[in-house]
Amino acid sequence: MQTETNKVENQDNLSEQLATNGVEDQDLNEPLETNSDDDQDFNEPAAAAAEATATDLPQEIRTSALWDFYEVNGHESQTQLKLEELPFKQQEQLLMNDLIHVAIGMCGDYIKPKPREDPDDSYEAADRKYVRQFEFNFVVDETLLELVQQILPLASHFVGMQLIIAETDAWGQTNKALNVALGELTSDYYEMMQRLEQELMLDRLTLIKLLYYLEPTIWSMSEIFETLVQLERHNYRGAALLTYLCHRIKLLEGYALTQEIFIKLTKGAARPYMEMLQIWLQKGVIVDKYDEFLIEARAQPVDYWAHSYAVRIGCIPSFLQQTAEKILRTGKSLNVVRKCGKRFEPLNLQLDFNPSNNQHLLAIDAAFDYAARLLLDVLHEHDLLGHLLAMKRYFLLQQGDFILQFMDECEQELSQSVSQLLPINLEHLLQIVLGFSTDPYKDNLHCELHAAVTTTTGSELNAFDCFSFGYAVDWPICLVLNQRAIGKYQQLFRQLFYCKHVERQLSNIWKDNATAKQLNSTAPLLYQAAFGLRQRMLNAIQNLEYYMLIEVIEPHWHLFTQKLTQVQNMDALLELHEEFLDLCLKHCMIAEALQLHQAIRKLCGVCLKFCAFIKTTESQQLLKSSQLFTFFDERFSSLLITFLKQIIELTKNNTTDCFRNVVHRINFNGYYTEQLKREQRSAVDTEIEEAALETNV
Length: 697
Prior knowledge:
Layout: H1 2-21, H2 44-55, H3 59-62, H4 88-103, E1 111-113, E2 134-136, H5 142-168, H6 173-201, H7 207-233, H8 238-251, H9 256-283, E3 295-297, H10 304-307, E4 309-311, H11 324-339, H12 359-381, H13 384-395, H14 400-414, H15 423-434, E5 445-449, H16 463-466, E6 467-471, H17 483-512, H18 515-518, H19 524-564, H20 570-587, H21 597-616, H22 619-623, H23 626-650, H24 660-666, H25 673-696
Antiparallel strand pairs: 1-2, 3-4, 5-6
Helix pairs in contact: 1-6, 4-5, 4-6, 5-7, 6-9, 7-9, 8-9, 9-11, 11-12, 14-15, 17-19, 17-20, 17-21, 19-20, 19-23, 19-24, 21-23
């Protein structure tokens, strides 16, 4: 009995040491005596080897804070009693003492862990390294044995949890934070075991009571262990880890105690992630050492707003899935404000994740609204509306006198082929035209030649075919007037400018050339035919211009500026601007899907050929050119009827578009009505013939 008392006292001291220091790396059975002063010159490597041999602990384990049922020789009592020879009460006491020590990862006197190589069908082969089974070197009452077996899974799961913590500690900030939270849970576990040991020493504990006290912990530890096994098996890190923990919380509905433990673990694991999120939402800066955050920075792109930052699809926790785009825009907005050199006070956020509520979503919404207002204020400070008005003035031909004066000055240069044109001459002439303008953004305008545009005249590409304005913008206006937006303005400008050029040529052929005045009285019909054709061409081009400028661009611009005052964030502004440009491109018949742009270019090409023919033909030759007049008349009429027919077909199923207004304006007096009807009847007859042919076949 004295031996048993000494053993109990030894175990009590061990438990106190565990409760006080946690699982520290120290030899729990270090002898009290120290070496004398005469033994200072000892062999350190030999001493270390002797110490390792004395404790039978591998070196990698001895340098960590991990117990895994390693034998500690000093723990063994000198005389081990056989349980079956002892009274029931003493058997119970010794088994409880063993269970408490086994539950914290130490070997017992009567309960020993089996080697991990032993098969266990309840776990996959990859997970067996975390599971321990136990063997008993005693024979006791079946009741006691059954109670012991119900408690032992706690020991296996606890030690398995420690093994997984050690293995995943270098898996990133989120996994490390989870391990810290599990470490706090481990401290509570040790404290509970210390209290149970004290109860045992005071003889106030039975095996049934021990099971009763440990039953909630056994269930919770089982769930924690199963969760950690899944995390390690599927290599869950960062956002995937947080998502899986949230999933486990949902599965634990109805198990309040265990669910509360998982909520605490999830809050701890999410702490570094939420700190990264808070810095991003407050300053627009990414602090992400392990590439776990849902936002990543990219190399300097052409379109900064669209491509400078992106969402990592695989790094979005489930509780941020619906707000990922909002988070991205918030940080981008603040990033732009910082690049503008504007100082701002970071929003005071309480951004802690709690799986039991959605307070973090409210904080994200507040940060988004604050950042959006800041960025819009910066854009207005840099006069965004003034730049948009300049784009309308120069690219959408709002300032008619400017474009006419520019064409007067540059007509000779633009009439040259692209290979002969000197761009510096165009720039010089543009500066002359803009010299007397009071527009503050006139210096942003410059000339460009888009050689990708193809000519429809069959001759060498000239400057009128590919000329366009360019517009230089600084930060942050370039976020709105980016290359994509300016490209759409240039598409609109080229069509308007080309039509204006054709209109001028048609207006000038009789004024600038005296050929018409030299026609004698013997050719009135020829004169009338030529003049009538020129007037029909001019009417078509002018009505087309009027439609695009007055019936398309002006109404859409009016709606655009109205809605512009109501936008709440940068993306809404960009979407509104994009919508305005797309509607203008569509209704001005420039969109490729409509296939009307080429029809307009062909019409303009015929008009220019006709003008060139009139200008270059002598009066006597003109009298003999009735066949050419007939060719131009038929060619122009055919192209125009085809163009009008395409518009009518296009508007059959879509009455909301304003394309039909072009037909009404060009055919205002019904001149082309009969020809359109003939075309429609011919199309119907063709369809009937094709249907009959298919039926016979």
